[in-house]
Amino acid sequence: MEMERRSTLQMSGPGSPVWITPPPKPAPAEAIRAKLTEYRRKCEERDNLILEAKKAGFSEVSIAELTGHSRTTVRSVLKAHGLC
Hints:
This protein is mainly alpha-helical. 58% of the residues lie in helices and 7% in strands. It is built from 4 helices and 2 strands. The chain is elongated, with a radius of gyration of 23 Å.
């Protein structure tokens, strides 16, 4: 079991040795649940910022450019809140 988690050394001909690290084990369900919950919270923050920007007079294009989201994403957030 312990050997599976350690990196292994492989020689690939002349030059420096290459260290091979085994792939990470899948995260437990509780860790995934926490990550998904955090993601939902971030999306809610994103939506609130988009709405705030639109109410402040920013155009869809400028909001998209400033946030790095597509205009489609910005438009869908605005539409979901009746601002488009």
